[in-house]
Structures are given as C-alpha cells and as structure tokens.
Amino acid sequence: MDSASLQQKLMQIDGRGYKTYGQIRGAYRFPRFMLFVDYVQGDPFATPSRLRVRVAQADAGFDARLFENQARRVALEDFIARAFSAAIGRIVQGNRGTGKSGLMGVDRGGQEILERTAALVTDRFVEVRFVAGLPADGRRCLGRGAVAMLLDELPRLVDASLFLEALDSGAVYGHVEAAEDQECLRGQLQEKHLVAFLADGSILPRESGIRDRPLAAGNVVSFQSPPELRFELQLPNRGRVRGMGIPEGVSLIVGGGYHGKSTLLSALERGVYSHIPGDGRELVACRDDAVKIRAEDGRRVEKVDTSPFINNLPFGTDTVSFCTENASGSTSQAANIAEALEVGSRLLLVDEDTSATNFMIRDELMQQLIAREKEPITPFIDQVRNLYREHGVSTVLVMGGSGEYFEVADTVIAMENYQPRVVTGRAREIAAARKSTRRREGGGRFGPLRPRVPLARGLNPRRGRKDKVAAKGLRTILFGREMADLACVEQLIDRSQTRAIGDMVWYGLRQGYFDGESTLTRVLDRLLADVGAGGLDVISPHRQGGEDFECTDLTGDDLAGGPHPGDYALPRRFELAAMLNRLRSFTVRL
Questions:
Q1: Which residues of 133-158 are buried (b: 16+ CB within 10 A; e: fewer)?
Q2: C-alpha to C-alpha distance for 17 and 83, rounded to whole angstroms
Q3: How many CA atoms lie within 13 A of 36 on its CB side?
Q4: Longest dimension (CA), the chain
Q5: Signed CA dihedral, 522, 528, 534, 539: sign only
C-alpha cells in the first residue's frame, strides 16, 4: 500500500468510533520512506500508537564509517533519535483533540549516550521508532487530523532527521567521534593500571541536583590534573589528551565541604557511560565495572555472604547465607558490596555521606568501650586492602570526617576549590606521627566470593489473569505483584534502562535461563549475550508473541518481529542484578 491508500483510509474513518483506527495497521510506501503502523491504540487516553519510519541507506546517505563499529553505530543512532525529537518540537502542531491526540514522541537520551531501540542504522536502512496519539474528538476518529499528522508533518520530520544532507554533518561526525573516543578511553584504563581518567578542561559541576547539564554560569572551574597523577592517552579522533589518572588500589578523595569531593565521585559514577559533546564530562572515564556502594536501610537481603563484614550476630544468625526483610544501614551496605562483587565488579565507589558510619569505621575510643566480641561488624577500613590484595578490587572513597583511612590508602587526593592536589605523602606523615591505639579487626583475609543460583519460583510476572511487567518511573519496577525499589541504585540513569531491566528478567524466564542450576552470573551472561547478538528488540514480549502484520509487497525481513519496541536503553549487568536482589520475592540457593 502507498501513502494515498493511508489517506483514503483515514478519510473514510473520519467521525467513526475510535477503535476503527485499527484498520490502518500495516505498511505504507511514501515517496522517500516506508511507514510501519505496528500498534494502534484503542482509546485516545491509552498508550499512544507505535510507528516506525524507514529510509533506504542509499537515500539516507550516511557514510559507512559513521557506523563501522559498535561505539560509532550507537552514537549515530543516538544522534538521529535526538534530531527526530528536535524536529518534533519544531514541526508537530501538538494537541489535536481528546487525550493524547496529535502528540508525537521518540525516546531520546539526556547527557549520556546509551544503546537504544529508538533508532536503528544498518547498511540497508535507517529507521526511527516513535509514538503518536491518533487524533480524536471524544471517542471518535479525527481522520482529517490524522491526515495532517501522518501525511504532512511526518514527511517533514523524516526529511529533517533521517537524511545526512539535512543534518549538520560536522555535528554528526563530532557526536560519533566523541563517543568512540570515550569508549577507547575506558578501554585503555586497565592496561594503564588505572581505574579512572579525568581530562584537563573537564567541567564536573552540574546545574543542580535535578538538572544534569553542566554548570555554565557563576564560578565555573575547569578541571586540571596535578603533576603527580598526570597521564597522556592516545585517542583515535582527538589524538593525545592529558589528564588525571586514578591508579588501581585504594584511593581517598578528601577535602573540606563544598570543595568538590562528591562532585568528583559523581562524575566517576557516570564515567561508565559515554557523554554527548558539550557535556563537560566527555573525557571523564571510569572502569565499566565500577559500582556505587551506599547504605540502604530497609532493603531485603536474600542469602548473601556478608561474613567478611558481619559476624557473631545475636541468636546465632547465619551471615554466610544472610537473610533479612529489613536490613540496617551497615548490613545493607555489606550486602551491596557482596552482590556487586558476585556479578563482576572490581571497582567500588563509596561516599561517606551515603554510608553507614559504623560500617565505615570503629575508632579506638569505641573499641575501648565496646569489646570486639560484642561487636558483630568488621568495618570497611579493615577489609578494603584485603579486597584489593585477594580479589583485585579497587576502591575510590570520598572521606572528609575520618583520617583513619590514611593508613590504608595508596593515593590521597585533596579537592580544593574543585581542583585536585596529591597529598599522599603528607597523609602518611600524619598517620605515622600519631600514636594510635586502634586495633585492626576482622582477621587478615576477606575470603572467597560465593556465587548464588537464582530460582524461577521467586520470579512470577503474573498479576491477575495476565503477566504484568512495567517500569514505574526511573526507580521502580512492577513485576507481577511485586515491586522492586531501585531508589538507591544510583548508576541507573534512564527510565528506558529501567523498562529494559524488567523485560530482560521476563525474557530470561521465558527462555528458561532461571533453571535452578545456573549461577546469577551465568544468567546475566546469557541475557546480555542474547542482547549483544540480536539487539534489545529480542527481549520484547510483543516480538516474542509473533504479532506480524500482513503486507504483500514487503519481504519477511522487513516484517520480522511485529511491533518493535522503541523505548529500551541498554542497562549494565550490575543494575540488572540490583533489580533482582531488590525484588522481595527473589529466591536463591547456594
């Protein structure tokens, strides 16, 4: 069918009941693109209709070098989705009636560049997946309004965003090259024995606690590396860059309040992701296995080995297989570390402001008052070096209230007016000069990392007579009758990641990956391998349902999978594991 057929259908259903819009589901050839109407909403207030537009690559004109590797392809898709979104803001009229009538939207990112399903670039075509609220007057079709949307506005959107000739080619190449440089930067950290790198000239402060854009007014201080930690790294596009490298081991970030300690750590948290040009943190990179650790009062813990930190609990409570429905600050922080290590983290990021004090340190005065045999907690200070020595786990720790950590740190960086200064030598002098009577606690070893096997019986997506899995904002996932609270999972940054996490777990259940034999690490490996091979589309329950539409003039390759999800973003394995660990029905065996 062609665009004239779509126009005819829309004119014929004008004024009829809203469900009549279902007749337009299908595929339509426009002069410069294909339109796929994959899903049609049944009500003007319901979830908007899902559509796709596809342009042949030969017409779109994107140089193959722009998507010759994974980093470049993801960045190009990200740029196209942003361009489509910007065009909506310029072109689409907006509300055309009842409910969501006349609205269009596409999933686009914030300051980070994530792998998404909103756009797809191959050597054959360029595609954007978007949603549209088909116009209504009450519960009746506004067919003429739909004609204006789909046959006037939509072609202009496509012309403005899916053809290289219509875009700022310099901005396109700059976006792609910046993302590739950031991937390369992260890839060099391990071979250089670094856990993070911050380029000179970076802008770390943000506008506010709720606005993630770079601070652009007032006292903006660009980052400059101290000579002792200055490194030069070679990038494929930008060439040589200079900045501060944070070595492996135990690193302290110290300094007075409001001097940039937590701002630096926040930049490192987000350094596991690539950033858009102009963000200020484009060349701030952190090892991609970094996990932010914090206390999380009230969370559930399921058979986690907290014994390196918690022992000798009252009533003989088992801490090798520790369970609780209501963890304290210290036990939750111990569990968060064990869970991160279990699935592969080898870099912990810790801020004293969000940590349990009794988990971080027990000073000499408290040791004198409360005997060791009466204190079940082995503080982090007495295990942090064991973690590095036995398991190669580094720690970057923001600490402004206790100098006890001077004795266990390899590197001490003081932040002064948002600038770093190396004070390792002075910290060691201070520690050596003091006659401390504090005793090391907890023995001399951290011990093994214990794997767990997740069980399918703890993961039930059924709610009433249907399966129900949904993201409720950024920090909550509904899974059947259970809610996973991710409020303290700070490296989860996009609702589309949250949505993908829920559906990845659901997909894993359908595939039988929670078989009662595979460890949690093995389950995550299989899930991420499937996504790596087939893209995030593979996890969609609609795709699995085989809801292909009929169209005689398209190939099966064009129709594969039915309604395509345009609102997923790739999560990391650590946030995926975090969701499982916070689902109150989650069950494992050891």
A1: bbbbbeebbbbebbbbbbbebbbebb
A2: 35
A3: 25
A4: 89
A5: positive
Question: Rg (Cα) of the chain, in Å, rounded?
Answer: 27
Q: Which two tokens stand for residue 446?
A: 């951290």
At 575, phi and psi to the nearest 5? Answer: -75, -30
Q: Any idea which residue has 């670039």 for tokens?
A: 121
DSSP 229: G
- The secondary structure element, H or E, covering residue 39 is strand 34-39
Bridge partners of 471, per DSSP, are 477
The two structure tokens encoding residue 507 = 């997909």
Least confident of 49-58, 425-434, 547-556: 547-556
Q: CA-to-CA distance for 494 and 112, rounded, in angstroms?
A: 9
Produce one character per residue of 227-253: b if its CB has 16 or more CB atoms within 10 Å, e if not.
eebebebebeebeebebbbbbbbbbbb
Q: What is the Cα–Cα distance from 303 to 363, expressed in whole angstroms?
A: 30
pTM score: 0.94
Per domain, the residue ranges of the chain are: 3-167, 290-433, 453-589
Q: Dig out the tokens for 89 from the structure.
A: 């803001």
Beta bridge partners of 467: 462
Nearby residues of 212 by Cβ (< 8 Å), 6 or more positions away: 110, 111, 206
pLDDT tens-digit series, residues 231-285: 999 999 999 999 999 999 999 999 999 899 999 999 999 999 999 999 999 999 9
pLDDT digits (tens, 9 = 90+) for 124-179: 999 999 999 999 999 999 999 999 999 999 999 999 999 999 999 999 999 999 99
> What one-character DSSP code corresponds to residue 159?
H
Q: What is the 3-state secondary structure (H, E, C) of 279-328?
A: CCCCCEEECCCEEEECCCCCCCEEEECCCCCECCCHHHCCCCCEEECCCC
How far apart CA 248 and CA 396 sit, in angstroms, is 9
Start-to-end C-alpha separation, the chain? 57
Count Cβ neighbours within 10 Å for each residue of 273-301 and write b for 16 or more, e otherwise.
bbbbeebbbbbbbbbbbbbbbbbbeebbb
Task: Give tens-digit pLDDT for 434-464.
Answer: 878 888 888 789 999 999 999 999 999 999 9
Length of the chain, please? 590
Structure tokens at 124: 């054959």
The span from the CA of 193 to the CA of 190, in Å, is: 5
Choose among 583, 298, 339, 333: nearest CA to 455: 583
CB 291 within 8 A of CB 341: no
State how far the Cα of 166 lies from the Cα of 158, in Å rounded to an integer: 10
* Residues 290-433, CATH architecture: 3-Layer(aba) Sandwich (3.40)
